[in-house]
Amino acid sequence: MTPPPRFFLDRSLGARSIANGLRAGGLIVQTIEDRYGRELAEQTPDPTWIQDAAQDGYVLLHADKKIRRRTIERDALVTNNARSFAMSSNQLGGSLVVARLLSFRERIYDVIDRRPGPFFYLVYPDKVESRPLEWDTRRRSDPADPSWG
Fold first, then answer.
1. Looking at the domain assignment, is residue 140 inside a domain?
2. Is residue 30 part of a domain?
3. Beta carbons of 131 and 121 less than 8 angstroms apart
4. Is 143 among the domain residues?
5. Which residue range is the domain that position 104 belongs to?
6. Is residue 149 part of a domain?
7. What is the distance between the alpha carbons of residues 29 and 22, in angstroms, rounded to a whole number?
8. Is cis: bond before 47, omega within 30 of 0?
9. Rounded distance, CA 104 to CA 125, Å?
10. Whole-angstrom Cα distance, residue 44 to residue 112?
11. Which of 1, 8, 11, 115 is the most exposed place for a label (fewest CB within 10 A)?
12. Contact 70, 135 (CB under 8 A)
């Protein structure tokens, strides 16, 4: 029997209420704060937590659907065979995030069991859908540019 998947929540989903709700629903969860501590969690670059969590076998849960398009993050996803699920909106409240992820638990588990990484899925209100890991064709060099990402 395959052990249950372990999930890693980045800053966008790292709120205690979300982690606790998912744990109450039976998921094994580690938050970015659990891993790095409160202070370092805010400073840890996306490629670092992607690499660390993926190499430790965690499935990534986050709300940054554009992470698959930014070169540095995309490279980290691909290089580390990351298995990633992003919420389709980063404007959801914690209870809605928990409800949505738990309602699709069997679908998410099925994807994890069927597909090796790297992969990227979006979790919508009514479905979980695969998305390609894409290169950011704009190649913007300044994240402060409002049109970047």
1. no
2. yes
3. yes
4. no
5. 6-131
6. no
7. 7
8. no
9. 9
10. 26
11. 1
12. no
